[in-house]
Amino acid sequence: MNELKNKYNSEKIDHSINNVNDIDIKNKSNFEEPISFSADEKKNKKEIIFDIPVDITIELGQSRLKIKELLNLSKGSMLFLNQKQEDPLKIFANGKLVAFGEIVTSENTYGVRIINTKNS
User: Fold this and answer.
1) In what order do the strands lie in the sheet containing 56-59?
2) 16 pLDDT exceeds 50?
3) Does residue 74 carry a pLDDT above 50?
4) Ranges for the Flagellar motor switch protein FliN-like C-terminal domain (predicted)?
5) Does residue 41 contact residue 35 with C-beta atoms inside 8 Å?
6) Which of 12, 30, 38, 73 lies at 20 to 30 Å from 87 by C-alpha?
7) Which domains does the chain have, with CATH numbers?
8) Which residues contact residue 57 at a Cβ distance below 8 angstroms, ignoring those fewer than 6 apart?
9) Running DSSP on this structure, what letter comes out for residue 30?
C-alpha cells in the first residue's frame, strides 16, 4: 500500500512539474501588452499636469527664538534673521528648493527676480 501511495505522489509531483514547464514565458500572449498612447493623448496628459497648482514660498531668512522671546513679541519688535541683505532669497515650490532670487519692487508691490535655478 505504501508503495502505491509513493508512486501516486511521485506521479502527481511529476505531473505538476510538467505543467509548469508547459508555460512559455517568452510568449507575450501570456502577459498583458503595455498600454500605448497617441500623441494627442500624451499632449492632453501634459496639459492636465501643467494646470496643477503649485505653492510658491519665498524665504527671506530664519531666526531661532525661545518661547518666552516669542511670547514677548509685539508691534514694533525687531526680529533679526540669519541672512544678509545681499544674500539671495530661497524660492521653494511645494516645499522643495527650486531657485534663488532677489527682492524687487514695482508700483508699491514686492516681487522676486529669479537669479539662479536649481538644475534638478
Assistant:
1) 56-59, 89-93, 96-106, 109-117
2) no
3) yes
4) 49-116
5) no
6) 73
7) 2-117 (2.30.330.10)
8) 91, 92, 95
9) G
Question: Which residue type does 45 have?
Answer: K
The count of residues in the chain is 120
Q: How far apart are CA 94 and CA 51, in angstroms?
A: 15
Nine-digit cell string for 12: 502527481
Q: Nearest-5° angle of CA 24, CA 25, CA 31?
A: 110
> Which grid cell sits at 66?
525661545
Above 80 in pLDDT, residue 42? Answer: no
Q: What angle do CA 48, 53, 56 make, to 5 degrees?
A: 145
Cα three-residue angle 11-13-19, rounded to 5 degrees: 100
What average pLDDT does this structure show over 99-120?
92
